[in-house]
């Protein structure tokens, strides 16, 4: 059976794919400004600690369940227990996971389409096609729809290739490109006037900010989104991992890469914002905080690029290419969740599973585009604020309470004969059993009130 499934050919291929899933729009448009507004280096240190104490164990729960069962989320969670009712609860959780992954993709593809559009508009504008440039940069249903469909087509094309020839191959190509582009852009921006002010804002530690409970809750929420947890993306990637790999180590490498790229993005975003500031571009909101997220990407950065003439065109193209790559390596991991289910549970070929899942998600995404004001924010909130943390709790409960400890140990022993004596074995089971569900519940409750 395993032979029929895909499997990552190399450890590096897996790490690039899983880190590609984790590194996405959130790392670049959210993390750096969040860090700068919340205590700089003090935020970075706290975030690192939180990510390793709480998000990493949840990541391990998904990777280990996936690797153990070598199945999609629905069948994996449905097979951890012998009790029919627990099995059904597992399947239901899996179905909710794949619906949530699909919902996240339906709004993510719209935003990612804008990245493609902005990326193409700069070279087109430089070549003189002004009307196309304007069309690509102006918010309108027809543009949003076209770009979303192009982005979905790209995502489907990669997933169609399967695990080795699609996901792994493209992650191995795109992730190094992302890293190089990010470093090159940061190095260039750091030479411009005003950049060092941005660096200081980003890094000077202010520990008074990070001790507030609001802050801790925010940071944890973003760690969960950033590591793509709860909806089965990491579970399905884990299921394609070879039995010879030591999961706690590769999981730590994935988490480190996600956090590392988020921190690195700060070396581009904060200096760029203060370069823009020095050139008269507004970078603060009315409350005096730094502009972030979509305003940062689609107003502040373009205003900065506009002040830089020819080099601005190059920078802008590279920057939006970076954003598009970050989005694509994440979107393929979301689409793989329903696709793997359709293949393994309903016997579809990869081609028809990709067409059906991609087609349905694109249709729903189109609905969001056409009812943007009512649906967009709603879908984001339902999928990421409520559904994702709830499912995160469920996955931890399955790993900590349903999965038998001897089965878990034998899973760890596949790649490490002395796993019984490892620190991981002594700490992690208690963590997923007690600490993760409790903390995630607290975050969720706090976000409700
Ligand atoms: N982690 C990605 C980001 O930071 C987004 C992402 C990919 C995701 N797969 C996911 C988020 C699954 C939630 C669930 O942008």
Question: What report would you give on this structure?
Answer:
The chain is mostly helical and 449 residues long. The chain has a single domain, classed as Hydantoin permease (Orthogonal Bundle), CATH 1.10.4160. 81% of the residues lie in helices and 0% in strands. It contains 19 helices and no strands. The site of tryptophan (TRP) has 17 residues, from helix 1, helix 2, helix 5, helix 11 and helix 15. Residues 21-22, 24-27, 101, 104, 225-226, 228, 231, 233, 330, 333-334, 388 line the site of tryptophan.
Short description:
The chain has helices spanning 11-22, 25-37, 41-69, 73-77, 84-126, 130-137, 141-160, 162-190, 195-203, 207-210, 213-226, 233-239, 247-278, 293-306, 309-346, 350-370, 372-402, 405-413, 423-448. 81% of the residues lie in helices and 0% in strands.
Structural class call reads mainly alpha
What is the assembly state of the chains in this entry?
A: single chain
CATH architecture identity: Orthogonal Bundle
The CATH fourth-level homologous superfamily: Hydantoin permease
What would the average pLDDT be, to the nearest integer? 94
Q: How do the helices and strands follow one another from N- to C-terminus?
A: HHHHHHHHHHHHHHHHHHH
For the termini, the CA-CA separation is 47 Å
Number of domains: 1
Ligand list: tryptophan
């Amino acid at each position: 059976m395993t032979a029929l499934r895909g499997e990552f050919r190399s450890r590096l291929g897996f790490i690039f794919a899983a880190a590609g899933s984790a590194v996405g729009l959130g790392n670049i448009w959210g993390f750096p400004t969040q860090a700068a507004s919340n205590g700089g280096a003090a935020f970075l240190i706290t975030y690192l600690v939180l990510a390793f104490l709480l998000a990493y164990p949840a990541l391990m729960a998904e990777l280990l369940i996936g690797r153990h069962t070598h199945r999609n989320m629905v069948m994996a969670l449905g097979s951890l227990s012998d009790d029919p009712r627990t099995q059904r609860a597992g399947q239901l959780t899996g179905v909710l996971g794949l619906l949530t992954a699909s919902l996240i993709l339906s709004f993510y593809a719209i935003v990612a389409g804008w990245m493609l559009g902005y990326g193409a508009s700069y070279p087109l504008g430089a070549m003189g096609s002004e009307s196309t440039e304007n069309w690509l940069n102006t918010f309108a249903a027809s543009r949003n729809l076209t770009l979303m469909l192009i982005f979905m087509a790209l995502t489907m094309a990669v997933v169609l290739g399967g695990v080795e020839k699609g996901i792994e191959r493209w992650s191995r190509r795109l992730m190094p490109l992302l890293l190089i582009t990010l470093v090159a852009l940061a190095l260039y921006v750091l030479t411009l006037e005003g950049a060092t002010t941005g660096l200081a804002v980003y890094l000077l530690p202010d520990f008074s900010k990070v001790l507030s409970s609001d802050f801790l809750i925010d940071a944890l929420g973003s760690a969960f989104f950033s590591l793509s947890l709860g909806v089965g993306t990491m579970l399905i990637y884990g299921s394609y991992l070879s039995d010879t790999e030591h999961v706690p180590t590769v999981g730590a490498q994935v988490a480190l890469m996600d956090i590392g790229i988020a921190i690195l993005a700060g070396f581009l975003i904060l200096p760029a914002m203060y370069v823009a500031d020095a050139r008269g571009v507004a970078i603060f909101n009315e409350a005096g905080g730094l502009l972030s997220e979509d305003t940062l990407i689609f107003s502040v950065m373009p205003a900065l690029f506009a002040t830089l003439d020819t080099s601005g065109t190059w920078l802008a193209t590279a920057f939006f290419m970076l954003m598009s790559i970050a989005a694509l390596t994440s979107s393929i991991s979301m689409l793989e969740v329903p696709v793997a289910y359709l293949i393994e549970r309903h016997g579809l070929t990869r081609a028809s599973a990709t067409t059906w899942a991609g087609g349905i998600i694109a249709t729903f995404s189109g609905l969001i585009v056409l009812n943007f004001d009512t649906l967009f924010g709603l879908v984001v909130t339902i999928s990421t604020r409520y559904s994702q943390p709830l499912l995160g709790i469920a996955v931890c409960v399955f790993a900590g309470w349903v999965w038998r400890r001897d089965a878990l140990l034998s899973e760890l022993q596949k790649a490490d004969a002395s796993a019984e004596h490892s620190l991981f074995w002594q700490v992690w089971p208690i963590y997923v059993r007690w600490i993760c569900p409790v903390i995630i519940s607290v975050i969720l409750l706090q976000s409700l009130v």
